[in-house]
Fold this protein.
Amino acid sequence: MLETPVPLDLTCLLASGHCQGRTLNFDSELSKLDRLAEGVTVKTLSGVVEHIFGEMGFAGDEIHYFDPVNSYLDKVLERRKGIPISLAVVILEVARRCSLQAYGVGMPGHFLVGDAHDSDVFVDPFKGEMIDRSQAQGLFNRMHPSSEFNSDYLSGVTNQAILSRMLNNLRIIHMKARASKDLIPILELILCFEQPSVAEARQLASALESLGRTDEAARQMEALADRSDPGAAIELRGLATRLWSQLN
């Protein structure tokens, strides 16, 4: 399992609020996770799963899988529905509150939860079921029949990687819907991580420009250039110059 100082519950809630343009009551939202943990009677990972998906009725949203609300932790807690990665966050945070060690597993196409004490035990968060390593591989093979399974797919990932994957899911959803207004806050968060991606910076500039916010796009590109490597910085400053020229 990979260690990370990033607090998963609060970070996901902060991202949810920013992406939705809402001010969340973080104490209230975090207390929902506290109460879920208090209701776990059998302090094992399977006990956590049984409580969340059995007694509390959480489930994968099979009807509206690509609805953005399935990626917002506050909405997942409210609706008790989500997609694998957001439901995994609920499991991980309830398990942590029960002093259990679990970790996120970034298997391509379907996020899982792993048991830190048994490398052959996993949770399929979408079904709310305990599975073993061979079942996890079978799940991958059904989703990617033409791809070869790699055992590294079942390795643990950091909390930052979990948040990045959730944001990327939202980016793809809003890009397909051509929803520029909704895409902007997501790209802003994605571009906060480490070295900014020029491709994603261009997506942000395009989304802002499409809404008539060309000056803001230029300023954002300049700010991103200031913390980029030399090659990317040249591209981003060139983009900023082009945007500023359109305002003259």
Observations:
- The chain has a mean pLDDT of 95.
